[in-house]
Amino acid sequence: MEFNFNSNYPVLESERLILKRITKEHVDSIFLMRSDKESMKFVPRVLAKSKDDIIEWIEQSDKLTESNDLVNFGIFLKENPNVAIGIIGFVRMNKSNHRGEIGYLTHSIHHRKGYTFEALKLLVDFGFNIMNFHTIEACIDPLNEPSINLIKKIGFNLEAQFKENFYHPILKEFRDTNVYCKINPNHIKN
Questions:
Q1: What is the pLDDT of residue 2?
Q2: For 14, which DSSP code?
Q3: Helix-strand-coil percent breakdown of the chain, rounded to 5?
């Protein structure tokens, strides 16, 4: 599995959203998300302390995209296409096994509006039909019920549970992980 998103980064669209490459022009809106404790509640990353943290994150993401190890999109409303309201992408890719791990974050002021669900549907479709993943997985904190409900609504099933397998730097404690997966419907053997 090889992808070349550097020269031709995909843009995905739904009724209300545009998913597109995050660039340095989006630093302000990404900083608002990554520095918001409520938005980052279930994301095992430290809060962004400065816009320089975001620039560094964008540069790291670009390097991982160049090496085909990651593909991230900003989530933008069509009515305001220069302000990111979220981030979604394949944060890990196991190319030899055609698997991708999906990760997503939406600013807390945009929770419960259906945007994350809409973005998830777009990305899962892209992962199965364009990237040709066999399986897409999502690693979710068991206390993150809204995220679990979203992923189940799209057809993911619980496949594994890991006890205290990662340290959450904001909560300063070890947390459990539930792994939800969905197999590409085009690959399912009858």
A1: 64
A2: -
A3: 30, 35, 35
- Look at strands 135-140 and 99-106 and give their pairing: parallel
Write the DSSP symbol of residue 16: S
Q: Decide the pairing of beta strands 17-20 and 99-106.
A: unpaired
CA–CA–CA angle 12, 118, 75 (5° rounding): 55
Burial 127-153 (b: 16+ CB within 10 A, else e): bbeebebbbbbbbbbeebeebbebbee
**And the tokens for 185?**
């419907």
Work out the mean pLDDT of the chain and round it to a whole number.
Answer: 92
pLDDT tens across 40-71, in order?
A: 888 888 889 999 999 999 999 999 888 888 89
- State the average pLDDT over residues 65-89: 93
Instruction: Please report the domains of the chain, with CATH numbers, ordered by start residue.
Output: 12-137 (3.40.630.30)
Phi, psi of 85 (to 5 degrees): -105, -5
Q: Tokens 């539930």 appear where?
A: 178
Band of residue 6 on the pLDDT scale cut at 50, 70, 90: low
